[in-house]
């Protein structure tokens, strides 16, 4: 900082964008802590085991469209953390689809290395007090107040909006009124493999599912394991079902893709903020002279790449703000 002391930053959310932001700030010399309300880092970089089967149940793959993200993916490839799954689902289109080894959550764990991530900590509200030595406050749901020079919010925009309401910052021209599609996911461990074609996955296969992926083909499961993602409208229409009823509906719809294979075990997962319907044109949004910054996959770019680049942009915005006299 301009006064010579070590800057202090808090990142809310240990998804891809929050972890990318925290890592860049930490490497620049800042003191950083990430607050994550769930039990571990990753957000939609989510990998789960059911018995012997392993599933990516959130983000399934990613592409690379910019030189900035390509540099990171090249480094991951050199360390064996990612590999090319295929080059298109219906037909090759020139864009490799990358997957993480041994699952997408591995990327979150890698980005979290060296960063303090406090899990089970839900941010409840933010405050902005310019006269304080650390002008930004984060109150967690247990009533504790943490103070910092800047805060980066990496959770979905409706949640970010709720946190920022108490700061007095004008939110009218921000991205916060974006709506998100929901996704209901079904994970099935099978007694034998099924053929999803040479790519190992299918996109938009029918009027119920938006994606079906073979986790064994991806190289993350040692036994047959399929991930089914329901389309947004189907997910919306069936969201109110209880867990057992939703699983039954999804298993009934998935049966046509199982080619007679038996289900050994199954689980469902609901993603309330799966996909932003509208993308903000900038890589992040900031206020309070860069001391409050919002980032995530609702900002410019394709989804996983957008989240990563948005996190880097948020860190840069905070660094610029804290370097001012």
Structure overview:
This protein is α+β, with helices and mostly antiparallel strands and 325 residues long. It folds into two domains: 8-43 and 110-178 and 279-322, FAD/NAD(P)-binding domain (3-Layer(bba) Sandwich), CATH 3.50.50.60; 47-103 and 179-276, Alpha-Beta Complex (Polyamine Oxidase, Chain A, domain 2). Helices cover 26% and strands 30% of the residues. The strands form five sheets. The protein has a six-stranded mixed beta sheet with strand order 7-2-1-11-18-17, covered by helices on one side. A five-stranded antiparallel beta sheet has the order 13-14-15-12-16. Strands 8-9-10 form a three-stranded antiparallel beta sheet. A hairpin with a 5-residue loop joins strand 13 and strand 14 (209-214). Helix 1 runs parallel beside helix 3 (105-112) and helix 1 runs parallel beside helix 8.
Sketch the major β-sheet: 6 strands, mixed
**How far apart are the termini?**
8 Å
- Strand arrangement within the widest β-sheet reads 7-2-1-11-18-17
Helix share of residues? 25-40%
Shape designation = globular
**What's the CATH first level of the largest domain?**
Alpha Beta
Keywords:
325 residues; alpha+beta; FAD/NAD(P)-binding domain; Polyamine Oxidase, Chain A, domain 2; 2 domains; six-stranded mixed beta sheet; five-stranded antiparallel beta sheet; 8 helices; globular
Helix-strand layout with pairing:
Layout: E1 8-12, H1 16-27, E2 31-36, E3 47-50, E4 53-56, H2 67-78, E5 82-86, E6 97-100, H3 105-112, E7 116-119, E8 123-128, E9 136-140, E10 145-148, E11 150-153, H4 157-164, E12 180-190, E13 201-203, E14 209-214, H5 215-218, E15 225-230, H6 232-238, H7 243-254, E16 263-276, E17 285-287, E18 292-294, H8 303-322
Parallel strand pairs: 1-2, 1-11, 2-7, 11-18
Antiparallel strand pairs: 3-4, 5-6, 8-9, 9-10, 12-15, 12-16, 13-14, 14-15, 17-18
Helix pairs in contact: 1-3, 1-8
């Amino acid at each position: 900082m301009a006064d010579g002391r070590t800057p202090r930053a808090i990142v809310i959310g240990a998804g891809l964008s929050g972890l990318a932001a925290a890592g860049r700030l930490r490497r620049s010399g800042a003191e950083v802590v990430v607050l994550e309300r769930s039990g571990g880092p990753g957000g939609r970089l989510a990998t789960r085991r059911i018995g012997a089967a392993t599933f990516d149940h959130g983000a399934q793959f990613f592409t690379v469209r910019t030189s900035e993200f390509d540099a990171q993916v090249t480094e991951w490839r050199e360390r064996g953390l990612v590999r090319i799954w295929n080059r298109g689902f219906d037909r090759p289109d020139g864009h490799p689809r990358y997957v993480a080894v041994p699952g997408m959550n591995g990327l979150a764990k890698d980005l979290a290395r060296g960063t303090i991530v406090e899990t089970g900590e839900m941010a409840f509200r933010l405050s902005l007090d310019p006269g304080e030595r650390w002008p930004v406050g984060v109150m967690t749901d247990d009533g504790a107040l943490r103070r910092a020079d800047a805060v980066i919010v990496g959770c979905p925009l409706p949640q970010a909006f709720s946190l920022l309401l108490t700061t007095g910052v004008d939110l009218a021209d921000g991205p916060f009124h974006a709506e998100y599609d929901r996704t209901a996911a079904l994970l099935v461990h099978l007694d034998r493999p099924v053929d999803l074609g040479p790519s190992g996955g299918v996109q938009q296969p029918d009027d119920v599912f938006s994606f079906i992926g073979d986790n064994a083909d991806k190289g993350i499961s040692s036994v047959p394991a399929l991930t089914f993602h329901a389309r947004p409208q189907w997910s919306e229409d069936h969201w109110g079902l209880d867990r057992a009823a939703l699983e039954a509906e999804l298993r009934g719809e998935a049966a046509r893709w199982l080619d007679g294979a038996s289900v050994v075990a199954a689980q469902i997962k609901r993603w309330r903020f799966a996909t932003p319907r509208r993308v903000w044109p900038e890589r992040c949004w900031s206020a309070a002279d860069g001391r409050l910054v919002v980032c995530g996959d609702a900002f410019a770019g394709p989804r996983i790449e957008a989240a990563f680049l948005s996190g880097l942009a948020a860190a840069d915005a905070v660094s610029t703000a804290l370097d001012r006299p």
